[in-house]
Amino acid sequence: MQALIDANHGHMPSYGNDTLTKEADDLIKPALGRDCEIFYVYNGTAANTLACKSVLRSIDSIICPDSAHIFTHEVGAPANATGSKIITLPATDGKITPEQIRIAHQKETYWGVHATRPKLVSITQSTEWGTVYTLDELKGIKEVCTELDMLLHVDGCRIYNAVVSLKCSLAEMCQHIDILSLGGTKNGLMFGEAVVFFNSEASDGFLHLRKQGLQLHSKMRFISAQMKALFTDQLWYHNAKQANLMASQLAEGLILHPEIELYCPVQTNQVFVTMPDKLAKQSMDKVGFFPNGPECYRLVTSFDTTEAEVSQFLFLINK
Prior knowledge:
By secondary structure, the chain is of the alpha/beta class. Helix content is 42%, strand content 17%.
């Protein structure tokens, strides 16, 4: 918020030709550890959708987990924008494997001209279930993509939480990615995300595509100023670390309740638990969390969640 206030003075060139956008790029690129091109957009759905559209034709297809937001929670935006088929794979705790991808590719290409051409694998890091792909798992998925002449897109709306969980660097995380939706709002920004291309061929025409996709901000500095703040003194790391720590404490307290169990491992800042609906409803009106299936509930901690708030919620759920 302070970065937005600081950017709100004087006059600067429009459409990303300002000094703040360059300064943000100069901070982000070293952190990601590879040559890349960065394009700022308004939100995560746009980042994912335009990332897909940048490399797909309507005769192509996307392989992704059945829990992926590009399939479940983005109103079909990627399929609508690309005209491409989405091939979903049954995920285990939100994750898919190289062998699943290979089999799906074989099944689709078996029919030759009568089927689509799988061109993109899209996974989420951390996943929609709060779990993380290890660096070796990412490497394995990239290797099968290379083998099958596919590109790897990562929805990184919570990539910072995954980095903290794995105790690695952003650079290590990005070594096996072709296109990254780099998160912003889920780690503190008011608005704004970025599409990052490590594969330069994939970025061809993206300046025009971003405009056509309604995502070119004339006052770009109000996105890039926030991204600059996020990458100054590793604020992204401190924010994600706090969120993960609070989720861990929350999970530890919840499983002490005899009627509450973890639905899947807690590795980042999302906690999924099973509990009787009656137990959940007694506290949902007072604290914002939501159902994620029959007697399954999703609780998310953020960069500014405090230990006092976690304790207060645990007291409420145990009353």
